[in-house]
Amino acid sequence: MTDASVPSPDTLQEVLASLGDLTRRVRSAQRGTWFPLLLLGALTLGGILVGRFTFKVEAVSCPAGDAAASSGCTLITQGSPVYWTLGLALAYAATAFFYIRRSRNRGVGTPVRPYILTGIALVGLVAATTFWSIRQGMVQPGDTVDLWGLHLDPASGVTMFLERLTGPAAAVGLPLLVLSWVERSRALLLLTVVYLAIELVPLTDGWAGIPVTSPWSALPRFGVPGLLLLLGALGFGLAELPGKRTRS
Amino acid sequence: MSEQSDQHPVTGLDDVVHQRVRLGILTVAHQARRVEFGFLRTALGLTAGNLSQHLAVLEKAGLIHIEKGYEGKRARTWLSLTPAGDRALQDEVTQLKRLIHQIEQGSSAPKS
Lengths: 248, 112
Description:
- Chain B: It holds the Pfam family HTH_34.
- Chain B: It comes from Streptomyces monashensis.
- Chain B: This is MarR family transcriptional regulator.
- The complex is a heterodimer.
- Chain A contains seven helices and four strands; from the N terminus they run H-H-E-E-H-H-E-E-H-H-H.
- By secondary structure, chain A is mainly α.
- Chain A has one domain.
- Chain B has a single domain, classed as Arc Repressor Mutant, subunit A, CATH 1.10.10.10.
- Chain B is 62% helix and 16% strand.
């Protein structure tokens, strides 16, 4: 081989760099993160209203052996598992439709399938767990909670953590981790980690000055993560704007 | 395997894949999974005729699969990588990295 035919490392580096640029350009055309965040944020904020309208206080007979039996017991119920199951399933279906339509319009395939499949699978799992726990009814003092073969103490930290995990943290947060991976988005990964921290960190009753007996007690629980998701949607939407202008 | 690694990386470059535009086409198709003709043309800054020629070379080599169809009244051409195309792209990038490494090592070696 003559000297003239040997490529220089600079030229080869340029070739690899241009391939990297092309890859980034395709990824940018594939991203549509603002849409699922907008839907999930609106759904989460809607949970506040659902909590308000399903809030119910009942006087019930106290479980045997309860120290408070003499003063009577109150059962507070709030929220609707149907709202979350149906709402999240529709949100994932709408997200799949959005990405497929966008893929056709822009002329690039979409990597969103793992996100949608993870989301729907986890919504099913969370719904099954929720409906199962509703069927079990109130746990009597001294009894254990039998969850998927685990015998758990209802007052233990592990049970509380699992209770928080088998809610929006699993059905919204874990699929968002998958989305951040398929879209190779560090910004979404960061947002998801903050979201999961908010969902999984235990908040004591009466947090933000709203007592658990208030019909608006769901406000901080859903308001904070809902606003975070909506702010994320706004941020990702604005970040996509310069790209839209360039393409149009 | 060892025989291949003893060879100079230049010998491992495939002429069909190594051409700059075709390498770009394979890269975009790999990342996009499925890519439309118009997107490729814009991304690579090519004329339709030029892009068609490169696509024909890649299709003949069995590296891409081309689907033609209609969306409404609009004709659309989509292409995707075949497994052979995917392997060829990975091999090409590996050989390029090896080549850069080898040239850089050679240029930093003390001259007698």
